[in-house]
């Protein structure tokens, strides 16, 4: 009866008799020093280079495996062929090469199926590599891989390839392997098969020469691409220029997109291909992008592959570059990474330039909206130097972030976050307009001007624009005011004062509508154009002086009653109902008001003067506790 693999021992291989010429029971096997092996590996690597040394050791291991499989088949009476197959790993252990520990073993020798995996414990080859060469970036147990592949292929009668997955020689905790037939590996093993090919040295040298030439050509392409991209940036060609340079260097279509997936630049002559290149097709995969990561992807019904990398500024994604590739290759990744770095530098420069320009425009906007005595020509010219056209009609916008009475106070940081959010929405909305909005953020508000044509093209009306902005923001404590359109540079100050007062009035009245149009003030806008608002205040205060003083002395509410009375068109019964007082009580109050003001409220002129005075005080903010119906 034949033996099993686990029963194999050195006694089957070695005799104790010392006789010249005898070698492990005439099996043509010898013992060698592991240190000698380590030195041999080192010398081979130094003389041939790591790639050729790897191939040499793999081929040597393969031949050793095939030879030992054959002689063990003849010399040992095995129980069956599967035991002969397993004996290969036992020989590893007996000869001190490694202890093989299987994890998965799916083998059918009759059907030619082979799929195994496991661990190599205490690999002599990994230990010697660490001793003489240090850690490597890939697995280093070349002989073991070759031996396992050769031994198993001889047993199976078909080509089996082992691949090392983890290796102590590259810093892993252990060595592990997977072995499959070439058919079961498929394309995954195509690169490794090269090292097992039995070609003559001349052919190998020729292949190496071709690879060197290819590498030289790639280095030339990489150098030229970097040089051209740098030159494009210095010449101010921007992203369209970058896309063209990348496309011509790599002979492929290119698409550059922003962080919101908007198309920034493209290059290529294949009609319609860029819609398939957009990262919107792989939006879920983009969440995993970090550092200088890449995403390789494709479409099920398309033959081309795509490679995407992010454009990063301060570890934040500001865009994406996508190219079409023939095959997965680090060469493309390296070049695409360079292109992304140059694009990031360009975007950063643009950001700095824009921020500088915005700061200058902000200073000019401050003068335009808040300085009544500006020099019209000077301010117009200075805006023109910054490529902004003030001669077109504009809307003046005033956005106020209002604190909630029931909430805790908003700190400066919270204000900043809300302001930035509002600004980003507005800028993004009019990103491609010639006259982009100009914004002047302050603590709890934003002052801005927006070209009338920009709003008219995208929205039904200024109110519609304001309502859509409120909807996007989703913030209940934001008021947006919009003026009438300006006709001249001198209008901006006046329109801003109007819209500012309109918003303040809406906040004071606690209106539900968060979008306020200045023209809703009606004839009151005339007051804001007065040369001396102090005169208006004096006029109103003089007319209502006795009533205000009476209220202050007696803690009465006659001024409040008069406001309600005027708001209800001087209707006695309606006002009494709203104020929840009796008709007689209401008549008494009206009579007292007429006495104090020395006026007759049944007279239309007297009514108008009273209403005018009340609205002026209301408009100028001199009334703090009125509730308007």
UniProtKB/TrEMBL annotation:
<dbReference type="InterPro" id="IPR024096">
    <property type="entry name" value="NO_sig/Golgi_transp_ligand-bd"/>
</dbReference>
<dbReference type="InterPro" id="IPR042070">
    <property type="entry name" value="PucR_C-HTH_sf"/>
</dbReference>
<comment type="similarity">
    <text>Belongs to the CdaR family.</text>
</comment>
<dbReference type="Pfam" id="PF13556">
    <property type="entry name" value="HTH_30"/>
</dbReference>
<dbReference type="Pfam" id="PF02830">
    <property type="entry name" value="V4R"/>
</dbReference>
<protein>
    <recommendedName>
        <fullName>4-vinyl reductase 4VR domain-containing protein</fullName>
    </recommendedName>
</protein>
<feature type="domain" description="4-vinyl reductase 4VR">
    <location>
        <begin position="119"/>
        <end position="181"/>
    </location>
</feature>
<dbReference type="InterPro" id="IPR025736">
    <property type="entry name" value="PucR_C-HTH_dom"/>
</dbReference>
<dbReference type="Pfam" id="PF17853">
    <property type="entry name" value="GGDEF_2"/>
</dbReference>
<dbReference type="InterPro" id="IPR041522">
    <property type="entry name" value="CdaR_GGDEF"/>
</dbReference>
<dbReference type="InterPro" id="IPR051448">
    <property type="entry name" value="CdaR-like_regulators"/>
</dbReference>
<dbReference type="Pfam" id="PF06505">
    <property type="entry name" value="XylR_N"/>
</dbReference>
<dbReference type="InterPro" id="IPR004096">
    <property type="entry name" value="V4R"/>
</dbReference>
<dbReference type="InterPro" id="IPR010523">
    <property type="entry name" value="XylR_N"/>
</dbReference>
